[in-house]
Amino acid sequence: MPRRPAKRPALPEQLVTHPAQLAACLAHLADMPLIGFDTEFVGEDAYRPELCLVQVSTAEQLFVIDPFECGPLDEFWQILLDPERTVVVHAGREDVRMCYFQAGSAPPNVFDVQIAAGLVGMTYPIGYAGLVHDLLHQRMQKGETLTDWRKRPLTPAQVRYAYDDVRYLLPAHRKLTERLKRYKRLEWAEEEFATAVRKAVADDVTVERWRKIKGIGALDRRALAVAREVYGWRDKFAEKLNRPPRFLMRDDLLIEIARRAPTKADELHAVRGLPRGQEEAILDAIRRAKALPPEECPEPETRDNDTSNVVLLGNLLNVVLADFAGRNRLAANLVSSGADLKAIVRSRAAGEPLPDVALCRGWRAKAVLPELLAILSGDTAIRVADPKAAEPLELVELEPEDEEEQDEE
Q1: Are both 13-201 and 308-408 of the same fold?
Q2: Reduced to 3 states, what is the DSSP secondary structure of residue 402?
């Protein structure tokens, strides 16, 4: 028998377009320990996205705050930074970043319903409408995804969409918290939320973003040094002008400059489409790269040419993880990537320490990693227990071989 839909949260709604309305909204929020939070922004033509709307929900009311009309939001951001308050988001990376850009800090207590859903066995990553449907049995109208939120006045459809984006956050938080407690995974969730916030506001120093440019793999070490320096200049220039870096200089032009490494302005002009008036700044970046000693130039990234045993065992661990996740109500792709599984296989095959990957840290290392290492060590075997079952495999712990039998062999 199909479940009956939960009652749609019917809360008072307030469109905040005046400083007096904002003051009343903030007074209400200041007393709330739990706040649903979302933003609408436009980021296609700026270095940092332009904030266009803020949506907030509490147990008692819904707000859509228009930052173009109601005045500065400094006090609002401070409310989100209160360590005694929990901020509920869905896939909240950009919302957390917006708070970070506006206030210089991220909310200390974030609950991301998308992550929580993966930790209780739901699809990961799941869209907001899918989460609301699967968890709360409600249907959402999602017709404003590509709207230009800078235009005023807002249409009734835009305002309705904005309210609905936070309407279901607190009911979803309540249900997911109940499940996390039931499965004893609340601490797992808190660890994941903190990691997600950290990644949202801080560039990973282990990731060199310039290496992601298409065509970078064809360059030698000196050309890589030029690409790195020009990329750094482009990023700072884009931030200064608040424009997307690729609008100022396309990636293919950056690669062409790195390949040619011009030393004079007339040589640089042979590359069409460069920003005007920036010739000397680009040439300075090239000169810095050329002045580096050879040993300080970046090395080309080596591609993983895994041996057949690493590929095979990595695939085996993928199967084991999928079955483990199904049996334990987890989203397998939230637990580990295929690349991390292969990194573990490589370390075991080479007799080296485990790699520093997510699967080897925190709750994953305690709850999941031992199962996989037991397979690799031969302490556990896999058998097909029921081909018709959703989780057809069974892990069987093997008895250690008798030492006398081994000697006889």
Answers
A1: no
A2: coil
Q: What is the pTM of this model?
A: 0.86
Could you tell me the two tokens for 157?
């459809």
The CATH number of the domain covering residues in 209-296 = 1.10.150.80
Q: What residues have CB less than 8 Å from 56, skipping those under 6 apart?
A: 25, 29, 35, 36, 37, 62, 63, 65, 166
Q: Alpha helix (H) ranges present in 145-220?
A: 156-167, 169-182, 186-201
- Report d(CA 52, CA 41) in Å as an integer: 5
Q: 183: burial class by Cβ within 10 Å (0-12, 13-18, 19+)? A: middle
Q: Quick check: 55 and 37 in contact, CB under 8 A?
A: yes
CATH numeric code, 13-201: 3.30.420.10
Q: pLDDT tens across 96-141, in order?
A: 999 999 999 999 999 999 999 999 999 999 999 999 999 999 998 7
Q: Does domain 308-408 have CATH number 1.10.3720.10?
A: no
Domain boundaries, the chain: 13-201, 209-296, 308-408
Residue 268 near residue 291 (C-beta atoms within 8 A): no
